[in-house]
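Hey, I was hoping to borrow your eyes for a little while. I'm sending you its amino acid sequence along with the backbone structure tokens. Take your time with it, there's no hurry, and the full record follows here.
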Amino acid sequence: MDKPRFVEDIYPRHTLCGLTIRSPLARGRLQSLECPKLPGSYTLITASDIPGKNRLENSDMPILAGDRLSYIGEPVALLLGPDRTMLEEYAAQCTVIAEAETPVFAAHAVVDDAVLARREIRAGDPEAAFARAASIMRGDYRTGIQEHWYAEPVGAVAWLETDNAGGGEGGKHSGKTLVVHTATQWPFHVKRSVAQVLKMESALVRVQSAFTGLHMDGKIWYPSLIACHAALGAWITKKPVRFILTREEDFRYSPKRNGSEISVSSALDAQGEIIGSEIQVTVNLGAYGINSAEILDQTCLGSLGVYRFDNLKLSGAAVRTNIPPQGPFCGFGLAQGFFALERHLSHVADTRKHNPAEWRKNRFPGNGSLPLGPAFKESAPGEQLLDTAAAMSDYYRKWASYELLRQERRQRLARNSPRNNWADKGETLRGIGIALGYQANGMLYPGADKGNYAIELTLGKDASLEIATSTAGYNDYGRIWAAMAQEILSIDAGAVRIINNAASPDSGPACASRNISVLTRLVEQACLAIRKQRFRDPLPIRVRKTVRPRTSPLWEERFPPLEGAILDAAGFSRPGWASAVVEVEVDPVEYIPRIRGVWMGVDGGKILSEERARRSLKISTVQALGWAFREQIAYSDGVLSWAQFANYDIPSPGEIPSVHIDFIWNDTNEPKGIGDLPFCCVPAAYVHAVSQAMDHHFQSIPLTREDIWEAGKLKKTEEP
């Protein structure tokens, strides 16, 4: 099929522009909306004009605010008209009248009724372990938010189209189909949300996926909200409507990677072995808390890590606050959990003067099955990955050298005045860090649709093959699927077409590496089924393959579904794995770290396209490093300021370090997800490297220049 277009390039005739009237309060009770008298060609739409449910599918998020305001920037009304400039003038004259209430912005300040989900995990007797501990180490680890920074701002275009087949029910637009174009990872979520908002049959909503670009799993549900705005406008005005956020609107109000606060305490015996741990996880999901169970459980799983623990207590909470709704980024929270635990264990090893790589290898479970986490169906290659990344980077030699230099600086400080330079003038400080992590293939919770996702293949009389799927971003996967069909069915790869239309089945959200792991497996199964029927049944042959949630008794025992939700642990049974080494150098005058290199050992299962796999990992590595030190934004009183928008900074091409990747080749026939792996290990390895260089235990990301500066001042003034 044709390549999808950007939403900005879709402009039907007689299109109306749309603007959003937003809440000026972070929390309050909406009383009224004052609006100037509008000409006949302009329309104001409020929640009272919605014919169906004022809710996004499977959530509590309103399409337009009813009587409650929950964050600054929440949509209150829609203003439609032919002239964008006039719309802006009318919008400036609108006033939202509301009674203000005291907002809550910080996760630790919420009360019980703002807790969206909880998770309690317990093993052994942690209280007894802490009672007999020779020492206790504690770390408070925080991760900041991260902006997706899409190729174009989120938007949607909708219009009514005559359907010759007719249909419809009383009170509905009989004989009309509603067409919606938006850049979404899950077209069927858009379809169902629009249908329930407009109280119409789902079959009468046709969603076309526009170009998503590098979305980093940020376009799963938010495009559905903007699509509902455009669809509501088209339904009421009976004209095409375009709702495209400005770049500033997108930056300030669209979901970000949620922040986390994770405290880890470890009880150590006299030999420095961890005999017990207590972990407290808090994730701030902002208003409404969409995917709260998913993000909380993923963060908790990352916080459990991949090492042996005999006595452990974990308490997790996903909380609602009055900042804009937060959402998933690559890893769905798994990366936040891995950062906390990997940093904590590196600090334990450093404090005991153990090599962090060897410390990890000695505590990795021999059979690969984690005592408190997922029950893997194959042995996890943790030790092999650590050895691979260490060999590529010359980790052991560099770590020993940098450790000697760190000890020399400590001795120099002890011999001299406390005010003497901690580092010699002109000395470059260097450090190297290592971390390990895994990535699942899919999500834990399939959602209200029960996770029954499908793909359909049709072999035609002309030896062409059609693959019907609703998934977006199919270009690279289409080439992989075509090569697979060519191998199995002996047909020309050029005769394979990807079909994405109203008749395509719901293939589920294109996130968490589902396309390469889940859908590719379904395509392979369908091709094998066609091959069996090919010379027995007449053409065309149509085969539909479906994937449904699967759980194991062991998983259900360890992680019962939160709040009665359906749990699907299948994606965690064969995860992708990676170990990362990052080397840095820090100028003790400017305190700006420079990354000397990144090395990764990766177990991605069956690599279907090595070129695409390497490209995906390198792109994600740059994004992960941006989260670790560069992309510094934070909500202040519930908003992101204009200055943060104007100064938002992502790594430039000239700053991208060399990234070296080595795949562990094995006999598995299943591809695994790898695109999120850098987020689960690179940030922790980076902060570990800077911590060794500065001889200071950093606990938060993004790690700012000011943080490093303060650590340097502390080193120069601390007592010997």
Summary: The longest strand covers residues 274-284. The first helix runs from residue 84 to 93.
